# Entry
Amino acid sequence: MLVSARRIEAVRPDAVRALAFLDVAADRLSQLPLLTSVGVKYDIAYDAAHDVGEALLAAYGCRTRNGPGQHEAVGRFLRALLDSPPGDRAARRFDRLRRARNQSHYDATPVGAAEAALAERTAEELQTAVVARGVGS
# Structure
C-alpha cells in the first residue's frame, strides 16, 4: 500500500545499509545518558527510532521517497511490519513521537522529561524488535 501510494519505493534489500542504520541508532542511544537537556535527549532518541525504521526499510528492500512525509512513511512502515510483540506498541508510538517532534521544531513547543524518556524507551523497543526479526545479523 505504501508503495502504491508512492510513499516508499521498492529497491534491492540492503543488509549493509540496514546494519549501518542500526549502528547509528545504537550510537545515538549510547549517548543519551550523557545528555542533560530534555529537548536534546528527545531529539536524539527520536532520531534513533527513525534510524531503526530506516534499517527496517533497507532490510526489506524499501526506502522513503524524497519530499514531505518521509518520517510519516517510516512510521507507517514500522506499524505495518511490527504488528505483533515485540515492537508493536513502540511502532504505534512512533507517530506520536513524530508529531511531538514537529511541534517542538516548528512551533517551539517544549517537550518534557517524561516525553524524552518515552522516546528513549520507544527507540530501544524498536531496536530490540527489529533485531529480533533478524535485521542486522
Observations:
- The radius of gyration is 14 Å.
- The chain has one domain: 8-132.
